[in-house]
Amino acid sequence: MGMLNGKIAAITGGSRGIGRGIAEAYLAAGAKVAINGRSQEKGDQAIKEMDAGDHAIFIAGDVTSKKDVQNFIQGTLDQFGQIDILVNNAGGAAGFAPVAEITDEAWEHTQNWILNSTFWATRAALKHMEPRGSGCIVNISSLEGRTVTHSSLGDYITHKHALNGFTKAVAFEYGAKGITSNAIGPGALETDAMRDAGAMVAKSTGVTYEQHLDSFAQVAAIKRIIKVEEVAAVALLLASPDGAGITGAIIPVDGGSII
């Protein structure tokens, strides 16, 4: 018997990286999962690789679109009948520049990607969770949601900090209704998203990608970057009965980057 038997999880941005790692951990614990992403092809590939039969579905959509986020939550409910766990994993930045050079378009895109997507998904899920008197929300924040380690990430840093505040607001309002809300703040991981974004950040700050990645390892007490499985393990704890006493927490999985 898995600790998540009978549970349904909806995970944004679940075809690769952290979201995929969490989906696999939840499936192994007995849950059924719905994952989302922009690419139908990558989504189909992820479902095939996870080999979970009818326990996993992919719903294509872009989380910067409110309509797509609402479709994802509704699609999960249509398929599985309930949502017990919502993981707001999708979120990033596209423009990497000093604050004076950030465009309105880049700022608004990052806000939609990180903060608004989480709000839209959480609002929709809460309307389902509240009448049932139970639910778990896990937001994937960042080391940059608690501190600042690099330049040219002003929009990302700002909205990850805001995400942490939203996490606490939900925890405060819905704790007595059986719903927990927590965030995980990972340090750097070598995911596809990091390879894409890290290369751009490195270029904008005049270092190589390898130097950029190593800069995260150097600020960590463990002197290495984090593994996806280490983030997924905390997401599993938060979603399990053993994690019921944790809410309103921003849990760092950053190898001791902030002590």
Q: Which terms would index this structure?
A:
7-stranded parallel beta sheet; 259 residues; 48% helix; alpha/beta; single chain
Could you outline the blueprint of secondary structure elements for this entry?
Elements: E1 8-11, H1 17-28, E2 32-37, H2 40-50, E3 56-60, H3 66-80, E4 85-88, H4 104-132, E5 135-140, H5 154-174, E6 179-186, H6 192-205, H7 209-219, H8 228-239, E7 250-253
Parallel strand pairs: 1-2, 1-4, 2-3, 4-5, 5-6, 6-7
Helix pairs in contact: 1-8, 3-4, 4-5, 6-7
Could you explain the architecture of this structure?
- The structure is a single chain.
- The chain is α/β, with parallel strands linked by helices and 259 residues long.
- The protein has 8 helices and 7 strands.
- It has a 7-stranded parallel sheet with strand order 3-2-1-4-5-6-7, sandwiched between helices.
- Helix 3 (66-80) packs parallel to helix 4.
- The radius of gyration is 17 Å and the shape is globular.
- The termini are far apart.
- The model has no long low-confidence stretch (mean pLDDT 95).
Quickly describe the structure:
This protein has 259 residues and is of the alpha/beta class. Helix content is 48%, strand content 14%.
Structural category: alpha/beta
How many helical stretches? Answer: 8
For the sheet with most strands, the description reads: 7 strands, parallel
Strand content: 5-15%
Our measurement of the CA-to-CA distance between the termini, rounded to an integer number of angstroms, reads 37 Å
Q: Low-confidence parts, pLDDT < 50 over ≥5 residues? A: none
User: What are the secondary-structure elements, in order, as H or E?
Assistant: EHEHEHEHEHEHHHE
Query: Percentage of helical residues?
Result: 40-55%
Shape: globular
Radius of gyration from the alpha-carbon trace, in angstroms: 17 Å
Mean pLDDT: 95
Widest sheet: strand ordering:
3-2-1-4-5-6-7
Strand tally, please?
7
